[in-house]
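Support request from a user on the community tier.

User writes: "When I paste my structure tokens into the form, the page sometimes reloads and wipes my input. The last time it worked, I copied everything first. Here is what I submitted, just in case something in the input itself triggers the reload:"
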């Protein structure tokens, strides 16, 4: 999360983040908006044509009835009202019959309005739902690296506001199309009456169209900016809620507020700008048909004087103009919203057509009934075209270089530990092993089958990855473990027991049925990790990959977990990123990674004896572990305080604060240990250096401790 308060961050960096190739960063021209917007509306409506076409037909019926009304009123004026006035002898029966006819047409019109509006709404909401579903499917297909490049706020904003913007104009669209039919019919009717009045009509419609085009040209860039700012506001809000623990623990509430207010303010100003443009155009567009009616009346009276027109015909044309004012507006609504349609659609399409795809093969992993044999053959992984947190494109980074690695329970034992300093490529290796990434070069096989050839189901059955950040869903413990699959309670308990989670789950108010709350806010970090671990264990994968998955558990719990997995799950190969000596010691084989290359493999004892860099790193971790212990006891204290907090909300905030703080300090501690190890790597033959280093670390620990106490 970015805690920058700089107002300038937003537009430049966010725009940079959005792929300009998709054309979502540049405002489209009026012509493009017209073509692309109408094209989108037509093709969307075609997808729902069984509802949309009846809706348009209702609109056309309405439009024709509208023109018919004007014809009837013209006829009634000419044949009933004018003769009545001229003779001074009104015929009540004829007037009543004419009135009934007009009323009958009005009822029919009302029916068509109901039909059109209902069907148009049904079309619109179906399309919104259809595209949300497509987007959800696409998002679940896109690979992890793609997701890592996106901001959740932007995705949320596309899911809600961009899709709605795309289909917003569907509601008035049938009416606007029907207006075209009405226009054509009206042109025929007026052409049969008087060419001069026809000219007024055609010019009015042409001016109306031109005004709408100018409006679009002015509105499109503002609409584009509004959609972008909406995404930004959503992103900041999302980050603030998500990172509430960090924000609170680092006392950044005010900075976050400034950041949010800044973006919200720009959205407000942009909305007002659009309102301002609308404010100028709307009255003009509204007034135009009325000006035309006035003109028709004046010119028509002159034409009656010339004998080119009857009074009834003038009334008919003037009434037609009155009736057409609203439909012509609906045309304007659609045209005026086309810029939103185009912008919303481009943002939605960016995701729907994202090229990154992790395709699956057609093979299933052989059911050997034994732990999986995993083999990396010359695997290189280059992170291409990745974006850093600032939104800038990072240079391509090679994270793993031609890695050859075999984890085979028969020859290497069932537990393989991956050890390496920060950034050495451990997580990359675990992502590759669980096929969340594909190698740039080389291949990875599971029992001889390339991971890329496996079906999605076979992969999910065979391999499970547990990450450090455990995600917990807002549902019961049971659902969190089974994820809706058919596992018995006995299986769930078995998995929880091995993950050392059964004890605290039983202590929850409703045991397995306890709802954990959004993101498991009512659990500690270590408890969340253990639930996530049980989720993987219950599936009894043949390859289990743990990337720092027990980092928030204390060493005794971590050791118990690994020991349980080793003892009870005999059909699983365990690939574990390890930091603690006690964890590494469980492994039958250790792989030592340095700068993306495997520089040593063997047993822990062998590497300790033969590889000085390995020894230095593991020793550094051990020292860091002392500080971890201190932090753990602090965590316990903070959790006690959280438990004593009066309300659940406070308890949750306290817990999050404690988790964030401890995780941050642990990481810093580990990195400090690694840095020191890198800075002055002591020779094994030089015990004095070790003593000196240990003393120095002790001093820093004490300083840290004093500082922590003061902060408390
Ligand atoms: N998405 C990415 N885009 C570009 N580079 C990346 C990306 N993810 C990781 N890297 C780079 O690849 C290298 C290996 O990263 P990796 O996360 O695998 O290290 P690690 O050993 O797991 O580190 P840590 O101990 O801190 O978790 C690092 O230099 C890192 O900066
Ligand atoms: Mg990592």
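"...and here is what came back when it finally went through:"
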């Amino acid at each position: 999360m970015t805690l920058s308060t700089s107002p300038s961050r937003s537009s430049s960096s966010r725009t940079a983040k959005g792929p300009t190739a998709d054309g979502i960063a540049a405002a489209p021209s009026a012509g493009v908006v017209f073509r692309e917007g109408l094209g989108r509306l037509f093709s969307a409506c075609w997808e729902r044509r069984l509802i949309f076409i009846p809706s348009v037909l209702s609109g056309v019926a309405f439009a024709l009835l509208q023109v018919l009304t004007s014809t009837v009123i013209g006829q009634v004026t000419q044949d009933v009202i004018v003769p009545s006035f001229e003779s001074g002898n009104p015929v009540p029966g004829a007037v009543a019959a004419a009135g009934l006819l007009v009323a009958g047409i009005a009822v029919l019109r009302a029916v068509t309005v109901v039909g059109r509006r209902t069907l148009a709404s049904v079309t619109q909401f179906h399309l919104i739902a259809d595209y949300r579903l497509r987007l959800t499917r696409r998002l679940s297909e896109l690979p992890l690296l793609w997701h890592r490049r996106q901001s959740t706020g932007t995705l949320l904003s596309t899911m809600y506001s961009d899709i709605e913007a795309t289909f917003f104009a569907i509601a008035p669209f049938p009416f606007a199309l029907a207006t075209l039919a009405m226009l054509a019919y009206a042109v025929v009717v007026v052409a049969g009456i008087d060419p001069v009045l026809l000219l007024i009509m055609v010019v009015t419609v042409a001016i109306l169209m031109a005004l709408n085009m100018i409006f679009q040209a002015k509105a499109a860039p503002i609409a584009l900016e509004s959609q972008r700012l909406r995404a930004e506001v959503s992103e900041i809000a999302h980050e603030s809620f998500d990172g509430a623990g960090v924000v609170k623990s680092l006392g950044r509430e005010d900075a976050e507020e400034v950041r949010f207010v800044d973006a919200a303010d720009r959205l407000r100003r942009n909305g007002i700008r659009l309102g301002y443009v609308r404010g100028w155009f709307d009255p003009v567009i509204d007034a135009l048909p009325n000006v035309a009616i006035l003109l028709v009346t004046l010119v028509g009276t002159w034409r009656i004087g010339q004998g080119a027109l009857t009074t009834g015909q003038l009334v008919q044309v003037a009434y037609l103009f009155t009736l057409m004012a609203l439909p012509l507006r609906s045309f304007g609504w659609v045209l005026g919203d086309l810029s939103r349609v185009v912008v919303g659609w481009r943002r939605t399409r960016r995701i729907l057509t994202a090229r990154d795809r992790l395709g699956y093969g057609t093979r299933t992993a052989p059911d050997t009934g034994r732990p999986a044999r995993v083999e990396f053959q010359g695997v290189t992984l280059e992170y291409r075209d990745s974006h850093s947190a600032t939104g800038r494109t990072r240079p391509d980074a090679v994270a793993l270089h031609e890695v050859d690695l075999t984890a085979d329970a028969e020859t290497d034992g069932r537990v393989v530990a991956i050890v390496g300093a920060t950034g050495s490529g451990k997580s990359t290796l675990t992502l590759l092993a669980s096929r969340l990434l594909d190698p740039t070069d080389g291949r990875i096989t599971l029992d001889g089958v390339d991971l890329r050839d496996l079906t999605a189901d076979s992969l999910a059955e065979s391999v499970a990855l547990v990450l450090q950040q455990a995600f917990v869903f807002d549902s019961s413990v049971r659902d969190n473990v089974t994820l809706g699959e058919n596992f018995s309670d006995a299986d769930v308990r078995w998995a929880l027991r091995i993950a050392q989670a059964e004890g605290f789950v039983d202590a929850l108010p409703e045991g397995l049925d306890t709802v954990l709350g959004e993101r498991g806010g009512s659990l500690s970090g270590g408890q969340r990790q253990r639930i996530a671990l049980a989720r993987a264990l219950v599936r009894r994968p043949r390859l289990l990959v743990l990337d720092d998955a027990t980092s928030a558990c204390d060493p005794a719990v971590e050791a118990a977990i690994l020991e349980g997995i080793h003892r009870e799950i005999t059909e699983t190969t365990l690939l574990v990123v390890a930091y603690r000596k006690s964890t590494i010691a469980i492994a039958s084989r250790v792989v030592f990674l340095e700068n993306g290359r495997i520089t040593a493999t063997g047993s822990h004892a062998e590497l300790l004896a033969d590889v000085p860099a390995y020894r230095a790193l593991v020793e550094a971790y051990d020292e860091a572990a002392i500080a971890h212990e201190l932090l753990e006891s602090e965590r316990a204290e903070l959790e006690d305080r959280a438990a004593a907090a009066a309300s659940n909300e406070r308890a949750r905030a306290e817990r999050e604060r404690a988790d964030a703080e401890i995780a941050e300090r642990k990481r810093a501690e580990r990195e400090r240990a690694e840095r020191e190890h890198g800075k002055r790597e002591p020779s094994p033959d030089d015990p004095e250096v070790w003593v000196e280093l240990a003393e120095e670390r002790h001093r820093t620990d004490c300083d840290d401790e004093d500082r922590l106490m003061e902060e408390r």
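Agent notes: The reload is a front-end session timeout and is unrelated to the input. The chain has a mean pLDDT of 80. The chain has three domains: 29-352, 374-610, 621-711. Escalated to web team.
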